[in-house]
Write a structure and sequence with these properties.
CATH architecture of the largest domain: 2-Layer Sandwich
Number of strands: 5
Helix content: 40-55%
CATH class of the largest domain: Alpha Beta
Radius of gyration: 22 Å
Shape: elongated
Largest sheet: 5 strands, antiparallel
Oligomer: single chain
């Protein structure tokens, strides 16, 4: 992926986003319902956009809310998308939904993560799971000093020694982060990808993963520690139709057992055994 940082002026930013989405001026103009001539003037800085035009083009280009605020600022307008702290009263209905998902996932682990894989919350099974992996007592995540699960997965001295098929898991993970970096176009996500790929023996995204080698319909993570073997797969969920930067960037990752033995281990942990 390109190592060129996104520009700062609106005209250059607009052109950058259009090229990042691999759209011609004509295709973007038709999709946004504007003339190609007007779009060309916007990209040259010969015409100043209205706030409505900024938002229309941003929506057509599928620019994330945080970056839409950046486009508005570059065009001389105030941001319109709020970024509300998780736990604030305005996000009460979201909090209820997250609590429900975490509770319903018991006795299997579930985590609330931010856009760049910081662990914000965990259900009881998730706390026990993290405690098992790290050798520490189960505890709720500290939102002031969140663990970064991406680094924990890729670092040689963290979870890597416990994951028997680490290379396969790491390959799909870095591909997911690369997709995030391509989608949001931010320095922070690109820096995260660069950091993950800089770890020793990190697989390049060009590595092949053939379906005949999978052995099942989804990739399972195979973990072994202190005589306990776990086989897991995960799902990732996001909130639909977000109107807040925080709600757009939240993810909920749920772990499921891939065999009966793993399910039995989590059931035993839920009973305190």
């Amino acid at each position: 992926m390109s190592r060129v940082a996104s520009p700062t002026g609106f005209a250059a930013r607009l052109r950058w986003w259009r090229e990042r989405r691999a759209l011609s001026q004509l295709h973007l103009a038709l999709a946004a319902g504007v003339s190609q001539r007007h779009l060309g003037f916007l990209e040259l800085g010969r015409t100043a956009p209205s706030r409505e035009m900024v938002l229309r083009l941003a929506a057509t280009l599928d620019v994330p809310l945080r970056e839409q605020n950046g486009l508005l600022l570059a065009a001389g307008f105030a941001p319109i998308w709020r970024e509300t702290r998780l736990g604030a009263p305005d996000l009460a209905i979201v909090e209820q939904a997250l609590d429900f998902i975490l509770k319903q996932q018991e006795p299997y682990p579930a985590f609330v993560l931010d856009r760049r894989w910081h662990l914000l919350r965990a259900n009881q099974a998730g706390q026990v799971f993290v405690g098992f992996l790290t050798g520490t007592p189960p505890a709720a995540p500290d939102p002031e000093r969140p663990i970064n699960l991406a680094d924990a997965l890729m670092a040689p001295d963290a979870l890597r020694p416990l994951i028997r098929n680490w290379r396969e898991v790491a390959l799909y993970f870095v591909r997911g982060v690369r997709a995030d970096a391509l989608a949001d176009g931010t320095e922070a996500t690109r820096a995260l990808l660069d950091r993950l790929l800089s770890y020793p023996d990190a697989p390049p995204v060009s590595d092949l993963a053939l379906p005949e080698d999978a052995g099942g319909p989804v990739l399972t993570m195979e973990i072994g520690k202190d005589g306990t073997a776990l086989r897991l797969f995960t799902t990732l969920a996001t909130l639909g139709a977000p109107f807040d930067v925080t709600t757009q960037e939240i993810r909920v990752e749920c772990f499921f057992p891939a065999d009966r033995e793993t399910a039995d281990v989590f059931a035993a942990w839920a009973k305190g055994k």
